[in-house]
Structure formats: C-alpha cells, structure tokens
Amino acid sequence: MKFRPCIDLHNGRVKQIVGGTLADSGAVENFVSDMGAAYYADLYRQDNLKGGHVIMLGPGNEDEAISALNAFPGGLQVGGGINPYNAMEYLDAGASHVIVTSYVFSGGKINMDNLEAMRSVTGKERLVLDLSCRSGNGIYYVVTDRWQKFTEFEINRKNIEFLEGYCDELLVHAADVEGLREGIDVNLVSLLAQCCSIPVTYAGGVKDLSDVTRVFEKGKGRVDLTIGSALDIFGGSISYRELLSMKEFHS
User: Fold this and answer.
1) Residue 42 belongs to a domain with what CATH number?
2) pTM above 0.85, yes or no
3) Would 44 be classed as within a structural domain?
4) 10-24 pLDDT, tens per residue?
5) Among residues 238, 211, 239, 237, which one has the least CA distance to residue 225?
6) pLDDT tens readout for residues 149-172
7) For residue 19, with 0-12 CB atoms within 10 Å meaning exposed, 13-18 middle and 19 or more buried, which class applies?
C-alpha cells in the first residue's frame, strides 16, 4: 500500500471540504490553507510521495493547479474539468496523469465516444479514471456533477475489468463519507481489493491511524490511500510525519 497525498483546490485556495456539499454558492469547509498549492507540492516532492492528486473543484483553480505541477514535475496527477481539449496543457505543465470523471460519465451513463477520445489524446498510460461513488440499495454507483448525480454505472468486477483496458490507474472517492472524518467505507475498500488489478487509490472518511491499518487489511495491501481533512497539515489531528512512518506503507 502507498500513501497518495492530495491537494484540493476551491476558488483558487487549498481547501478540504465535506463531500457532496459543493454547490455554486459554496461548500461546507473543513479547512482553508494560507499556503498555496505549490507549497504542498514541494512538501510531497521532498518526501518523494509520487502519485498524489491535485483536484480542481470548479473553475478558477487552473493557475494554482499548474503551480503545483510545476513544483513537482512528474509527481502529481490532476483532475477536475479535464477533457481532450485541455488535457495536454496539464500534462505539458508536469502532470504525470490526468484524472477524468464527468467527461466520461455523462448523461447518467458511460460515454464510450468520450472515453475513446480521452485515451486517444493521453494514451492509456497517462489516464486515471475517477470512479467516485455513492451507495444505493447496497450497490455502489459512480456519481458525477459534484458527487450529487447518480449514474447507472455500477462498481463491480466486470465493469472494473472493462475500464482497466482504457486507463493506467483508478481513483475512488467514497462520496458518502468524504470529509466527514467518521471512518472509512470498509465495504468499498474490500470491493476494490476484489475487483481491481491495476493501481487503485481509495479516498474518504479516515478519522485516525487505525483507519490506515483497516484500509491495509481490508484492501489486502493492494489499495492505496489518500487522506485530506484528518491530516494535521490540513487542520486535522493525524500527524503527517507519523503517518509516513507507518509500517503499512513500508511493508
């Protein structure tokens, strides 16, 4: 298991918000940083934490995202409003991969033309598909439009196997628990361990270091982890330095 750091951007600031609350009028914020995105990117560069992600939550975040990519060339992925027309701008700025959700999952289902278009621009090796999801009747469905609109696309072995032919990695936010710091979605972590054969990162709900161990165990060491609101560098109580020293990330 690897630790995958994050930089979430909203209205041009590094923030941590509660998943599912993002709207045109704003969002429920757990933390707003006085530091820019490049500060965090350089921190991750110094600690050699490759494979983290920069997420642009709405417009007005492009400059900050590019500053982070410039600070850690080849070390960060970027997502939020990515499409075939702007993907190369971010890859050329230093992103290792681009992350896509809404462009591929549009109209409540997967859009194969859009998926093919993305792969033709980035190549499979530089594309990450974000399968952020919510539970409905015990089944996990990909959600779009700020995690508020359910699609018909179910998280299961068949569907994951299909998507693995188009991308290099998967990123999965558990939108029901994202930002709440009340515990991870254990069932989702277990499902990802069962279904995924390419690198996959889980995000959402971590409250303390015991949740890190839980992800390691339920994910069978194959599911990587990102943590936002619970980290002390984002106003939380988990020590960033103590986290990096955990045996789960060095096994």
Assistant:
1) 3.20.20.70
2) yes
3) yes
4) 999 998 875 555 555
5) 211
6) 889 999 999 999 999 999 999 999
7) buried
